[in-house]
Amino acid sequence: MSATNTSVVDPQALPNLASSAGDPSGQGAQVATPAETPLEQSTLFRFATAGSVDDGKSTLVGRLLHDSKAILADTLDAVTRTSADRGFGGENGSTQKIDLALLTDGLRAEREQGITIDVAYRYFATDRRSFILADCPGHIQYTKNTVTGASTADAVVVLIDARKGVLEQTRRHLSVLRLLRVPNVVVAVNKIDLVDFSEDIFRTIETDVQGVAVSIGLDDVVVIPVSALEGDNVVERSAHTPWYTGSSLLDLLETLPTTDELERGLEPFRLPVQLVIRPQGALAPELSNADDAGASFRDYRAYAGQLASGGVSVGESITVLPSGRTATVVGIDFAGRSLDRAVAPQSVSLRLSEEIDIARGDVIAATGTFGEVSQDLYAELCWLSTKPLREGSKVLIKHGSKTVQGLIRAVTGKLELESFDYQAASGLELNDIGTAQIRLASPLPIETYALHRRTGAFLVIDPQDGNTLAAGLVRDHPGDHEDERYNI
Q: What is the CB neighbour count within 10 angstroms for residue 13?
């Protein structure tokens, strides 16, 4: 995926605005508790793969799809024929006759070169959980694609070649996952069969991985020995690794908690407004008929969006940011019915007790849970563009559903992957991770990413061509440093 569509926003987050209006009169509406809503019952789990080139990511994904029987028969036949044409060996009836990487590498260049270039999304399910899988490329120039795949993931599986151990790209990927606050990180030591299933080699790599994790502040990393080609410890536990007593990779993925499960009760309510729903005029001609059943919508006004965090109930007090005006929630509409309570990540429409000027880009938050809006943004940036970052550059900052102008006042450091320390820098290049201070043209309700994963993230966009330049994470605000030297 090119930098033009890199996003730290969930692409499935847009609400069904046409059906979320509900019944403002309350007559005939079905009142549903949160436990009855489809999103509450969902077992959807998003995970991504990462790692250095040729570590076997696509083969691992293919193995998961094949062994979980998530491949259509005609697709399997086509892949088998292509594998035979390419001289892929193995005994008759063996999955070794199948180049499993072909199940995910769909681009012609990927198949010709035997590499992954774009993020490949695949969907499969077991009897315990449904999965969305993002197979990310391993080349250093495609690190930006790993940021894309990991940004909305509940877990990331980082592959390491058992013959090579921890590489610079491994350290870079683990650093990105720490920055993105991915809640579950699994390291799969792949090709364990090529080192004769050696426990000593595995334990050495496991120690190195845990050392890197401690150095960058990454908690609870699980390390698993696997063979993607042979299937050892991928779906079923392997008899070749009796010294490993943990779960297989699929068993682990079926039991790990999702991001929403981990954070639902920890973060306060936030809803970035995507649309103001006000049916009137030519857009709703049926409302002109007083006898029409839709006349109850004549004075309807609601604010639609996806809950970024927390939950909200009818009767609760909310504050609209950045204006600071307060009101009470008098109705929650979801897919044509009314709710008493909504929780993240549901997409809903809120009706309020007060007529407040609210527009797309504003944030509705639980009263008393937000500090102050700010025009000074202190950020950690994953630079995704070949165009370098320089101090004094003018950019666009997309935060939630709002975009404002910004000015790079200072680049304050760049992460060195060997020492994991920030060194002085005057700019950032492609795939660099660094820190910067940005002055905004208008205040935004920004929060630190360490405490608010969704509302603490933003994009840096090129104002000239609209390409995404960086994924940004809000850092602690050291104080207000007004600087009149720059005019935006």
A: 18
Distance CA 95, CA 235 (A): 14
Summarize pLDDT for 222-252 with one digit per residue, the tens: 999 999 888 899 999 999 999 999 999 999 9
Helix (H) or strand (E) holding 327: strand 325-334
Task: Please state, in angstroms and rounded to a whole number, the distance separating the CA atoms of residues 483 and 20.
Answer: 44
Winning range, highest mean pLDDT, from 382-386, 393-397, 445-449: 393-397
List all residues 6 or more positions away from 358 whose beta carbon is below 8 Å from its beta carbon.
Answer: 273, 276, 303, 320, 364
Number of CB atoms found within 10 A of residue 464's CB: 10
CA distances from 261 to 121, 153, 310, 332, 370 (A): 23, 13, 11, 22, 22
Neighbours of 187 (CB within 10 A): 27
Query: Residue 124 contacts by C-beta under 8 Å, 6 or more apart in sequence?
Result: 64, 65, 68, 70, 130, 131, 133
Which pair of structure tokens corresponds to residue 91? 């005994």
Contact 172, 51 (CB under 8 A): no
Q: Is cis: bond before 345, omega within 30 of 0? A: yes
304 exposure class (CB count in 10 Å sphere: 0-12, 13-18, 19+): buried
- Contacts of residue 485, Cβ cutoff 8 Å, sequence gap at least 6: none
Q: What is the pTM of this model?
A: 0.70
CA atoms of 230 and 188, how far apart (whole Å): 14
Helix (H) or strand (E) holding 8: none
Residue 84: CB atoms within 10 Å: 14
For residues 319 and 366, is the Cβ–Cβ distance under 8 A?
yes
In which band, very low, low, confident or very high, does the pLDDT at 139 lie, cut at 50, 70 and 90?
low
**DSSP at 271:** E
What tokens appear for 359 in the block? Answer: 């527009």
Q: Name the residue with higher pLDDT: 402 or 13.
A: 402
For the beta carbon of residue 312, count every other beta carbon within 10 angstroms.
26
CA–CA gap between residue 365 and residue 307 (Å, rounded): 10
CA dihedral (402, 408, 409, 413) positive or negative: positive
Question: Mean of the pLDDT values across residues 317-326?
Answer: 92
